[in-house]
Amino acid sequence: MKKQKIVLVGNGMAGVNAIEEILKVSKDMFEIMIFGKEPHPNYNRILLSKVLQGDTDVKDITLNDWDWYKENNIALYTDESVVQIDSEKQEVKTDKGRIESYDKLIIATGSLPFILPLPGADKDGVTAFRDIKDTEKMLEVSKKYKKAAVIGGGLLGLEAARGLLNLGMDVTVIHIGPYLMERQLDENAGKLLQKELEEQGMKFLLQKQTEAIVGTRRVRGLAFKDGSYLKTDLVVMAVGIRPNVDLAINSGLEVNRGIVVNDYMETSAPNVYAVGECAEHNGIAYGLVAPLYEQGKVLAKHICETFTKPYKGSVLSTQLKVSGVEVFSAGDFIEAGDKKALKIFDEQDGIYKKIVLRGNKIVGAVLFGESKEGNRLFSMIKKQEDISETMKVAILQPLNEEKNGSLVESMDNDEIICGCNGVSKGTIVKAINEKGCTSVDQIKACTSASRSCGGCKTLISDLLEYSLGKEFDLAAGKEAICGCTSLSRDEVVEEIRTKGLTHIKEVMNVLGWENSEGCSKCRPALNYYLAMVNPTTYQDERESRFVNERMHANIQKDGTYSVVPRMYGGVTNANDLRKIADVVDKYEIPLVKVTGGQRIDLLGVKKEDLPKVWEDLDMPSGFAYGKSLRTVKTCVGEQFCRFGTQDSLGLGIRLEKKFEGLQTPHKVKMAVSACPRSCAESGFKDIGFIGIDGGWEIYVGGNGGTHVRGGDLLYKVKTDEEAIEITGAYLQYYRETANYLERTSAWIERVGLEHVKSILDDKKQRNKLNERMEATLSVYKDPWKEIVENNKTKKQLFEVVRS
Amino acid sequence: MINQSMTKILVGSLSDFPDRLGKTVCVGEKEVALFKIANEKIYAVENRCPHKGGVLSEGMVSGKFVFCPMHDWKICLDDGKVQEPDNGCVKTYKTIINEKDEIFIVIED
Q1: Of A517, A518, A801, the CB nearest to B23
Q2: Total-model pTM
């Protein structure tokens, strides 16, 4: 039998989700073809604000990569729009002239940003905030310009404004209403939000109407109706969206605000469906993400001709994705007529909570400052729960566990827990039962739930607790270090200390390892923990080192190695450079490259040549291969730079000389910049120093890798000595409390910056930490030199047998 | 079996090889990874992980398994089989230790 053919117009979240739902119901029933006008595969549009805010990267928000389309035999045409539907012939026509027939057509064209028809709206520097292109444009502009204006103080506008603030711009939000987010908040909450955002550095012009965008080719400012004027280099229009219905209108479908659909998402034409923001159901065109998942389920089942309950509209909840602000609203939250409100307002802590009741039923809620109860309230609202039995005020109390447990218990399996990514309770329960997930992070990795706004984390952890019972209590606090044992990192380290264990084999025997020789996870970890606990006596076990740390060089994909000699603070001289040049010639090293850490990398060195190369170089190892201090990157600073306020070279070299070769749970990178221009990129290092007038700022927990994270200010200090003292104590505390292979950026988030500060604030503790650090540093020897001087090691590790 | 040629190649004596580590042995064009595991047992396998060609001789050895240094695939030295959840196989070679503690690799062509 010939397969039925589905054509989807619009390669976005709503449409592709509907296809996924169809594939779930019947994998091989249809031939599927998708047209999308953007050049990307389907991505998570709601995360664009996170991209702009610098929390994530464009490539990390892809929902379905190119392979997904291939694996499911879906023909995908990007950069191609459907321009005409002939619903009689059941054909579509694209802007490239392609004509395709269909058995079922799904329209998921989404919505378009509403661009105010202002004079000057076509100037350079005016943008909407809707897709990757807009986001990239804003990122681009922020590099060159300083001032930004966002028109619209709604959800999207504020998220855009926060992002631009993160990018270092001076941001003003222009809003026509008397308070912010009036579609989701009441006046009280709106005002509180404004105050909070003003403290974060955002500026507001309320009850302002823009009259014109001023400038020649590029925008220079905004002129308002009241005659005032604002200088700006960028204008972001975030005044709302309208359903993208042009195609539907041209093709003669019934359209109001959106494309009119019935309870099964069918439009006025036979075999033509619409879903998501372009659709209008029962007079409402939704502009949020949650309804599209509910609609997609109904649509899919209807197309596959399996039974489905009709779609009866969605109750909405909103959470603002701006860090440091907890805002939640749901349902019908404005009191009026027969709707009465119950409010709590704690002015001191900036907490405001309100529920709206109609008789005994809860119909809406607004929370500000503390939104933990949001999920529970939202569930009560959706069910129109009768609360006549409960003390009304108790509804706004923080949850006790029992209550919470019963909430997740009472949810249906197909009820959505993560609204941003459309993950149902059933999917999460399945991940717990079948894939063995025991933590919120594992659920996130497995199902994407809580990946976006994170508002559902409490629900997921309740669900874990409910599904796993006691097991979760155990698992919540601990994770076994590998499959060879059930003991956690903390338990193992504690046993090493109390039982005085001295080598890996002993740890495994005494602590009852299931696999007597361990595995590639636990052995390097134990090797590290033992050395951390017994710094002066522990005998390093090279058999339990990863190749790079055993060979003291970085293995390359062809089995050759790379060699990076130490260059303190990135400073070199003619003599060292001459030696390097001679070595390159003598050993015919194919590639010489300057590294990101301001050193020189010799790549493609043969294993047998390594000891000879080191001997000829006669320079210390740069530890470019190690879980240890890598480099201290520096700018030239006051010695040469006309802006430098501090001697960054001096401090950088001192730090690198002091801490070189220090073994740490994962690699540690530092940077010292002499002024806030931060040319050494101090904000993205494990520890970064920025020179200010009269001292240094110390930033910690920065990371420029897969999980980009800006560093947090730990302290301001006056002298180099203080900077070194703090660094020693901080690094030692990291060494003693982090999991093996946990970078400082992840560690600081886990243990908390405030906690670390509280330890370091205590002079006594700081001294103790530094004493243990000194003991560890006292036994350091340059590994290259050790190997060069040891013929046995040279033969055993570096010789290749030729027969 | 009759037409197969078998070559015994001397690669060194037992004491030349480090405990619980691998060593690269070149036999003509072939590269073999030789391992001395606990109890002085010797294993020899082709020195290329079936995944992305990682050099197995530099991997971490645990019992009769080696973990590829590139992406941590676990490979059994006995039969050359890649362990779950990955799959694949590397060629294994027979080894002989004589009374003088000399090690030979047997290459069959």
Answers
A1: A801
A2: 0.53
